[in-house]
Amino acid sequence: MTTLSPTKGPIGEPLDRVDGRLKVTGAARYAAERKPSAPPLHGVIVGATVAKGRVTAIDAAAAEAAPGVRLVMTHRNAPKQPEFGPARIAGNRFQRARPVLGDDRVRHWGEPVAFVVADTFEQARAAADLVKVTYEAEPHAIGLEEHLRDAYAPQTINVGMPTDTEVGDFEAAFAVAPVKVDETYHVAQQHHMAIEPHAAVAEWDGDELTVFTASQTIANARASLAATLGIDKEKVRLVSSYVGGGFGGKLGMRAETALAAFAAKALSRPVKAVQTRRQTFYTVGHRPEAIQRVRLSASRDGRLTGVSHEVWMQSSPVEEFAEQTASSTRALYGAPAILTRHRLVNLDMQGGEPVRAPGEAPGLLALESAIDELCHKLGMDPVEFRILNDTQIDPEKKKPFSSRHLVECLREGAARFGWADRPKSPRERREGAKLIGYGVSAAIRPNYIGPCAAYVRVAEDRSVIVRTDMTDIGTGTYTILTQVAAETLGVPLAAVKVELGDSRFPVSPGSGGSWGAASSASAVHDACLKVKAEMARTDEARVFEATGSVKGMRDTQAYKDFSQYCFGAHFAEVEVDEDTGEIRMRRMLGAFAAGRILNAKTARSQMIGGMIWGVSSALFEEAVNDPRTGHIVNGDLGEYHVAAHADAANVDAFFIDEHDERANALGAKGVGELGICGAGAALANAVFNATGVRARRFPITLDQVI
Ligand code: MOS
């Protein structure tokens, strides 16, 4: 196995995005900006206005007579589609058929019940308001806390992990422990609001379909669309050259894509469909509301003797999804007894889906708050407590970590942040009406790699083309693959052109699970080595090309022998106004260990973005469903608050020097989702340090601290 030198060449350099100029000048075309061969018609979705029931009548006459309208599609005239099938399937759920307008049932508020296509967007939108839908509503269940008695155990949690685990005997350890915490935390329903909403432009050429859409994972969306249309996936070309954020919401195929394809077929014209911001609150998944009970037990000298993490979260009777909320608890601390449990409560809402660091983000918000509670009871520095309870052996799998530098992150982060100057006890420091507090949290996230292929071609003039169906969702894929190809082939960066996001290119696992960079970079690296080896065998001036690949983690020995995670530590300083309860994050610092960093600038941006989302989840984000209807009462960005610039000043991040040759040939691990893991807890712990108020309901609202 060839290992590149970590110090030579452009890999790791803080290179500006190679697609940056295209993006800021508007030359990078996102899905809705793509131009099919003829001007497209425009489709607008009409969503259901009951939580559960049936459509009993649709009066489309006024809409059909409205100016410019070409088609009003409902379950009555939509093409026949496969049944959605059981809530739980064995295979890849992102590739299953997702029928839309397939029958008269309404499964949640906002589910599409009609699709209006007109010459212009404005005409389609005006006509959509004229469609009269009559429902027969049925009794529905909304509200997690009200329906907890209906909780059940899913077969697995996300990524196929076990639902429940137990190492040692937690109850016995907890019963006899001299110091304990037993608290319950509540994390609100959150929504991934990518700047680019979900969009599709569909065009048929005979029986061949081309769709420009916003997808994180081309192969999944393509298979799902083909299954929904009932056609061979070879007949479908899917293109996502630029994607304006994903966060899990674009892992699969969404309603607008299937609807645009159906309408384009029916009308023999290209059709464009873009979801509105409000529609995406109902149709693209969300982080389910969760209740988490955390119990901790320790000896008086601060050694954890037991950790228990039990979770109850929202799911849907239509499709089962359980975030891996307590999964980080299985590997973070070296306690002899660890118990984790996940339970679901089916509500008549769209099911939960992966949202950046699924489960890990809300799970660490609870666990790392509870650890802080324990440290307070013990009278211990929470940095020292975490160092004391570190482990180099995965406590559940009983295997060593491929690399684990949590202690280094805590120590180096503490030094750079000035942790030694922290207020040692709550309400100790104030500046006028502001109470000042410091908080810390650990970060952990699995390191994954997915099966990936990439094509590399070196022309006679030594210009290089790299192709894979991998996507760049704002993360920097174009840039890091340019760096990897340039360094591996020994050519200038300017000689390399990376092409992504087209189902005609070799298949990647896409952007998800933080596996994108390591997987695609490894495949490009492999292809470049093959090309280089062939070039070394001859002096001919000709074209050289090769397809390279990397195996997925399930087929990789290093994943059998080692437990693979990334680690980090978050430090936060807050001020809380004693009169108004207003909480302001003053500064945050993240220290991370995530293997070899492929681009210091884009990786740091990833971490900072995640940390800011941590601020958001601790202080702002909460979608509220009206129990009478299932309607989200704050379902737009005016009412659903996220951290804005003024909430996110002074956020910095750095990486510990790490090179994990057990992870892959490049030594790189996933960075994307690590940044949000634990970030919110550092803030919540800082709020406690400032005020003495322990918030266990997130987001922390002003009334909780006043
Ligand atoms: Mo991520 S939630 O796997 O896009």
UniProtKB/TrEMBL annotation:
Pfam short name (any one): MoCoBD_1
Signal peptide range: none
Aldehyde oxidase/xanthine dehydrogenase a/b hammerhead domain span: 25-139
Classification via InterPro entries: Ald_Oxase/Xan_DH_a/b, Ald_Oxase/Xan_DH_a/b_sf, Ald_Oxase/xanthine_DH-like, AldOxase/xan_DH_MoCoBD1, AldOxase/xan_DH_MoCoBD2, AldOxase/xan_DH_Mopterin-bd_sf
One Gene Ontology MF term: oxidoreductase activity
The protein's name in its UniProt record: Xanthine dehydrogenase
